[in-house]
Structure prediction request, 800 residues.
Amino acid sequence: MPRTEEANQHIREVRREQLLQAAAQVFARKGLADATVAEIAAAAGVSHGLLYRHFASKEEVFAAVVEQSLEQAGQLARAALAQPGTAWDRLRWITERIFPGQALGNRPQFFMVVLYALTNEGVSEHVHNMAVQQGKIIRDVVQQFVVEGQQSGHVRLGDPQQLTRLFLASIQGLVLSETFRQSNGADLPTLDMVLQILRA
Amino acid sequence: MPRTEEANQHIREVRREQLLQAAAQVFARKGLADATVAEIAAAAGVSHGLLYRHFASKEEVFAAVVEQSLEQAGQLARAALAQPGTAWDRLRWITERIFPGQALGNRPQFFMVVLYALTNEGVSEHVHNMAVQQGKIIRDVVQQFVVEGQQSGHVRLGDPQQLTRLFLASIQGLVLSETFRQSNGADLPTLDMVLQILRA
Amino acid sequence: MPRTEEANQHIREVRREQLLQAAAQVFARKGLADATVAEIAAAAGVSHGLLYRHFASKEEVFAAVVEQSLEQAGQLARAALAQPGTAWDRLRWITERIFPGQALGNRPQFFMVVLYALTNEGVSEHVHNMAVQQGKIIRDVVQQFVVEGQQSGHVRLGDPQQLTRLFLASIQGLVLSETFRQSNGADLPTLDMVLQILRA
Amino acid sequence: MPRTEEANQHIREVRREQLLQAAAQVFARKGLADATVAEIAAAAGVSHGLLYRHFASKEEVFAAVVEQSLEQAGQLARAALAQPGTAWDRLRWITERIFPGQALGNRPQFFMVVLYALTNEGVSEHVHNMAVQQGKIIRDVVQQFVVEGQQSGHVRLGDPQQLTRLFLASIQGLVLSETFRQSNGADLPTLDMVLQILRA
DNA sequence: GATGAATGAGGATTCATTCAT
DNA sequence: GATGAATGAATCCTCATTCAT
Prediction:
């Protein structure tokens, strides 16, 4: 007799998650154009044919990875806003979670995939927009904290947009440099050094 | 009939430079895997067949772009070291030349190509190493200025490696964000805001 | 627990017939190469896996459809021969049953499938031969009626083979044109107009 | 030095024609779905890669074949209308050119390809419409001759649409049967037997 | 030097078929 | 009996590279 409905549903979810994990890894290392479907499927431990029972195309797998990243950014933003304490406390809280070396799950993979989606012309408008949106979500939250921090005297004065952008750019620059460094993070600046950029 | 020798030589150089310019543009927008030889040749205004008279393969074109970037980094580093003034003056001098929005020639293209060479697994070891080398050249010069600046009291105290890395990471993060921003640089932080990271 | 044997047997037959019906529809619309097993199974309301419990391969399903058509042709031929009346009466009787618009069950589907089997190189020798045989069965009966009709003065004179072939070709051409006509048969020639071809 | 512009143009035209010829053959024998691009290219004596320098896809090759058939039908129709003589003369003239066994060029291939385009659901709307149009062009001309022939007393009385349809259906049925007959046309009805259908 | 026709290896995608449940 | 997850062979299509002119 056939598998139960739930059993199949479960298998599908597990497979999809495996594929997304594998795809994030591969896309992060090779980008969309260079990654092959066979490689992603192999990394997920399934045949390439099965991938197409879960995603319509390589492009859609890529889109799903970016979408997942977008969702995680949304969750992070909401969690940050729900955090107790001063604006500075919340700024530190969210910074801890986007700072390199914190290795929260597959953050680095996501970062590279989103970066690819932002910079590469071969990416569809839709996916590009999701990537843009993802960046904006984090930026908006941080900027809000910067403004509040300036009011409470924790954050140095200056254009909040510029300050936010500089702050996030430095973190992104560090994430990036961590990515292609054989490095164990030995001489990575500390979280506090980076926060210093905003410190009043 | 005479002169043909020199004329040909000249044409060759011009063509090669055209191709490299075009290649930098295309590789910056699409990366190595997604860029096509036909597209590069078209951007250079020549047939794709001709490209193979100047480069043995697409990979070699890419390598030549990275190499050119490496050479420019070397020139920039030597020029910075030859600059008069205090360590801080020289730090500012070189910063002005790597800061986004300064639009020094094709810097942004080079940046993206080198970034691709650093992060993408599909790039050959040799080319990857050139890209790593390029980063190191700039980093070493800046770090030297940081050390000197700390001694002369212009640069804040702290681990020079970490400070240098944070400083360069923020610039790279800004260059990157400029790349995928429709942005006219409106809310780009100022050079002085960035230098503040190092300011004593 | 008892009865299961019979019940199962019954289910098998019903399923097989469902599948053949569905297959005839789909093969008629798409041909052998373009039709998918999944589509046939879906049209029959079962899973594609089940199809393989009844047929060894897609090709065999196709073969079974052609075979069914062959059997029906045989039945039709025998019935025509058993028909009372003059040669002309029997000619008219069988013509009524192969004439388009009479919508005798799934005749049009069968027609298209047999046509595909006759004309497409991708069809196996065996299946092709069944299709040829099917045509011959009808042709032979009609030709016999033509010969008899000539003797009795109902059918015009001339080479019986040629007359038969012309007569059947016109019917087949009409069936075909009905197939791809949004047509409700409005301007379809009448049965008598077609019989006129043979009328003395 | 490069080939002259005309030389290239010439090569392209020759190749395109080769490919269309080959495609008509292969599509006629296998249909759209079953024919492979490799097979078509091989039949044309070129690599499959080259086919894509002339056509964007297999579907477009198919479309081009149907279009060519459409154009030939248009030419035939115009020529028939320009023909001197009575309606009956012109009817006979065009019939001679669509009657099987006349082997005017690649008529049989075209016939099968158009038939496929008419009956197979896998064919795009656009291509299907061209095929419909092709049939209509011939039908309209013949019907005009039928009407004129009735007025001049050459053609039997009756609904011109029905008569035309019956007449063309019989020719099409004969073309079809010639296609899958190993036959040399031995017992093919004569042209006059077919014209008898319309004869007053 | 320059062009673009030609080739074929590589990779995305489909789908017949198998098989565990 | 019935299902649908899983596989991989087959085929379309792209594009780096070669080469005749």
User: Anything to note?
Assistant: Chain A has nine helices and no strands. The first helix of chain A runs from residue 5 to 34. Chain A has a mean pLDDT of 93.
